[in-house]
Design goal:
73 residues; 0% strand
């Protein structure tokens, strides 16, 4: 299982909190790439509720991870 920003982007609008099966259903209905669905199917936490993308991909970059000054834009 591997995640990239491009793949994780497809789950940003998912109905959080959600179970693994709900996320798979959302990914299928929203037309996410096959890699997203395969990654979700590989997760072992069946029945567990995920509160956000960070629960699915712990290394998901947060806004603080980027070094830029918002006041400049």
């Amino acid at each position: 299982m591997y995640w990239t920003l491009e793949l994780a982007h497809h789950l940003e609008d998912a109905p959080w909190p959600a179970t693994r099966d709900e996320l798979i259903d959302f990914a299928i209905r929203s037309g996410a790439p096959l890699e997203v669905i395969e990654n979700l199917q590989e997760m072992e936490e069946e029945g567990e509720m995920f509160e956000g993308i960070e629960d699915v991909w712990p290394d998901y970059p947060r806004r603080d991870d980027f070094l830029f000054n918002e006041d400049e834009y």
